[in-house]
Amino acid sequence: METSDTQQPKLHPARSAPLIALRYRDFRLLWFGQMVSTAGTQMRVVAVTYQLYQLTGSPLALGMLGVSRLVPLVLLGLGSGLVADRFDRRRLMLATQTALMLVSAAMAALSVADRMTPLMIYLLMMLASTASTFDMPARQALIPALVPREHLPNALSLNIIVWQMASIGGPTLGGLVIAGFGVAGVYIFDTISYLAVIIALLLMQHRHVPTPESRAPVTFGAALEGLRFVLRSPVILSTMLLDFVAMFFGAATTLLPIFAAEILHVDERGLGLLYAAPSAGAVTAALFMSTRSSVRKQGMVLLWAVVAYGLCTALFGLSRSFVLSLILLAGTGAADTISMVIRGTMRQLLTPDELRGRMTAVNMLFFAGGPQLGEIEAGIAAQLLGTGPSVFFGGVACVIAVAAIAAAVPKLRRYDQ
Question: What is 19-414's CATH topology?
C-alpha cells in the first residue's frame, strides 16, 4: 500500500468510526467524484431503458440490452484485470472515464437530433461496456491502496454508500428530467458528471507502482493467473457464484418500466422511485455496516443475506401495490449491500496486491455477467410467462441456488475471519 504522508490522519479512531476512511485524502477525492458521476450514470440507466422501450415497446428488446453489455465483458474481462495489474491504475481510470464521457456525449447528440435508433443504443452501450470492463478492475484494485488494511471494510462500506446515494438521487432525478426535458437532458448531465471523477483522479497523489512480478510480460497465461487463483480458493469462488446467481435470477430492474406502466400504473416519476428504492435500502444497510467494527460468522451472514435478496425479489414479482413494491425493492438493496460488503472484504483481504486486478476481473465476469445474462433471461421469461411470474420464479430460483452452494461449500458456511 502506498499513501503519502499528507494522507495519514494524525489520530487513529476505532475501526467502528463510520467515516474513518474519508480521512485519507485520495480516497476522499475518489469518493466525492464517484458520487457525482454515479448519479449521472444512474440517470442514464433510466433514460436508456425508457428510450428503448418507447422505440420498441418490447420486453425482449429491453432484455437484449444485456447482450450489448455482455459481449465486451466476455471478450475482454480477463485481459482487463491484467492491464490493471501491469499499469498505473489511476491513469487507466482516466482513460476509461474519458471514453465513457464521450459515449454519453454521443447519446446526447443523437437524441437532440432525433436520430437515435435501437441499433445505435445497443452499439453505444457496447462501447460503454468496453470502457467499464477496463475501469472496474482498476477502480476496485485501487481502493485497498488508498486506505490502511484495517480500514478497508469501512472504505468498502462508504464506497457502497456513495454508489447507492447517487443511485437514489439519480433515478428519481432521471425521471424528472425525462418528464421535463426528454432523454437528451439526461445524457447531457451524464456527460458533464464524468468530469467529477476525472478531476478527482488528476488531483490524487497516489501512484500505482507495479511489483516485479507485475512487470512481467503481458501474456495469455498471465491473464489466466487470476482465474487459477480463484479456482484454488473455494471461499472466494463461492462468493462469486453467490453473486452471479443472485444477479442472474433476481434481475428485476430491467423490467421496471413494464411494472410501472402495466402493473403498478405509475408515471415517469413513479418509475424513478422504483429505480431508487433498492438504493434507499442499500444506503441504510451500508450505514449500519460502516458502524460495525466486525461481523462474526461472515459466511453464514453472507448466505442469509442472499436468501433475503431472493425472497424480496420473489414477493416483488407478486406485488400489485406501489408502496409494497417500494418496500420489497428496498429490501433487495439492503440484503445485497450486506452481502456486498462481506464478500468484498473477504476477497480483497484474501488476495495479494499483484493479483487484485485479475481477481477483480474474474469477479467482474460473475457480478457484471450475471446481471447482463439476467437481463436476457428476464426479457425472455417475461415474454413467455408474463412480467410478474417471471420475477417471482427468478427469486425462488435464487433461494434454491443459495441452498445448493451452501451445501457444496462447507468452508463458506464455517468462514469466520
Answer: Growth Hormone; Chain: A; (1.20.1250)
